[in-house]
Structures are given as C-alpha cells and as structure tokens.
Amino acid sequence: MYTQLEQRGMPEPPVNVSTLRTMKDKGEPIACLTAYDASFAVLVDAAGVDLVLVGDSLGMVIQGHDTTVPVTVDDVVYHSRAVARGLRRAFLVADMPFMSYANPDQALENSVRMMQQGGAMMIKLEGGEGQVEIVEHLARHDIPVCAHLGLKPQSVHKIGGFRVQGREADKAKNMRRAAKKLQDAGADIVLLECVPSELGQSIRDSLEVPVIGIGAGPDVDGQILVLYDILDITQGKTPRFVRNFQAGCSSPLEAIRAYVEAVKDRSYPAPEHCFS
Ligand code: KIV
User: Fold this and answer.
1) Contacts of 90 by beta carbon, 8 Å cutoff, 6+ apart
2) What is the signed CA dihedral for 95, 5, 48, 274, rounded to 10 degrees?
3) pLDDT digit string (tens) for 5-34?
4) Of 10, 260, 5, 16, nearest to 122 (Cα)?
C-alpha cells in the first residue's frame, strides 16, 4: 500500500514535507515555482523543481485580473487538479484564495477540497498572528500548511499597493514573532514575499521549518517565482526580484532547468533581485 506514494515508478522518490525539512537541515536550496496546468506541470517536474505552487497569482496571469482578490476556491481546485496530473516528483501546494479561510471551520472545509479534489499535499494561506488559530486548527487535522508572510497580495487594497514589507524595525520584529508563532502553531513552511534580505535571513535562522522566499534575499532555504515571469511571458513592468530565464534558452524546459540550477547553485537571486 505504501509503495505507491513512495515510488510512483520513479528513480527518485516524490518530495514530501520531510524531504523539504532535510533539505533545509543540509543547506540544500529548495527550488519552487508556480504552475497552473498539466502541460507546464510536466515540464516543471522534469526540470527538477522540488515544490510546485498553484498560486492565486492565477487570477492575474491566467485570468487577467489586476489582483488575486477575485480568485475562488473552485478556480484553485480546478487548476490544482490539472497540475497534479502532470507531477510525479514535485510536492504540490495549493493556495487558499481571499476569504476562503476567514474562520477555522471554513479553512478546514476548503483545505479538504484542495487536497481531496485538487490533489494538493499542502495548502498555503496568507497571514500573520491573526491566522495562528486557523493554522492550529488545520494542523490538528493533519493538513500541512505553508504560511505566507511579508507582502500579502490578498491585502493589496488594505496596504495600498504591492510594496516591500518589514523595512521598519517594529514591523520586522512583528514579522519575526508572527513567523515563530505560525511555526509553533503547526505551519510546515513559511513563505516570505518582498522583505529586506536581512529580515529573510533572520527569520530563516530563527525557524526550524523551511523558509521559502520571493524577493526575500539569498539567505533563505528556497526560492519561488511565478512561472510566467521567468519565461518572459508576463508583459510590462515585472517586480525587481524577477529574472528572465528564457533569455538565451531555446525552450521553456531549458529555461526552467536554468532556473532550478541557478537556485541550487545560489546564483539566483543576485543583489539586483534583492531588497535592503
Ligand atoms: O500566488 C502566488 O503565485 C504566490 C507566489 C507569488 C508565492 O503566492
């Protein structure tokens, strides 16, 4: 019974929460990327990405909205199910959309949908200390959780734009405290978006669980980017932390491989992709 999950006919076993924790302990960078459909999931998996996120960024890059706010649970379940069909080795995380985890029971009900219908192995939610009770509730029911701190795109209308978070000493201190409380509540991964590199490093150093960064500097346990940004599909101005990996590559697979290699050898992110 257990061999199906552990082998799936692969030379390498599938990534799970323990694999990610071991990678942190050994100092091996975790390469993460978003994906939204089966075809790209196959490429991302073949390229050696360790963790794939069906992000609510799909609201922007797939659906054409200006923010992630309109994305629904049905949307993420639909895309997660498609991505799950394309993955063999990578660990699949599904994003909880805006207002889909406003209380513990709602969060549990929607997480169960992500896992049972969407094939996800972990859910991600945006939050701070206010979400500790929700994370505790999910952890108590053995739902693996990634807690997203720093720039939280679902709060864009409250914070007044997409901007770097945690630059002020008091805000940095609050973020460090929230990260620790979320870990203690049962979060298995902390994701940091758009924070100064120094803060990324200090949160990474203070936690036992892996810390994945997007615009959080080089000294975290792994990196994540939006697939369409690295493939140069996104038009217009991209955030500072984005690097175009398609340049000089002859196929999307080659570009994704270049991204994985750059994360693993720590040549990405370079200083020009980081915030101080
Ligand atoms: O929705 C998403 O793709 C994300 C990543 C940017 C981390 O949350």
Assistant:
1) 14, 15, 41, 44, 45, 49, 50, 51, 52
2) 30
3) 555 566 789 999 999 999 999 999 999 999
4) 16
Enumerate residues lining ligand 1, CB below 6 A. 34, 53, 55-57, 95, 191, 193, 214, 224, 226
Q: What is the SS3 assignment for 150?
A: strand
Which pair of structure tokens corresponds to residue 151?
A: 């720039």
**Global pTM?**
0.96
* Alpha carbon nearest to ligand 1 atom 3, residue: 55
Residue nearest to atom 2 of ligand 1 (CA): 55
Q: Are 144 and 169 in contact (CB under 8 A)?
A: no
For residue 225, report the distance from its CA to the centre of ligand 1, in Å: 7
pLDDT per position as a tens digit, 71-99: 999 999 999 999 999 999 999 999 999 99
What is the third-level CATH fold of 3-273? TIM Barrel (3.20.20)
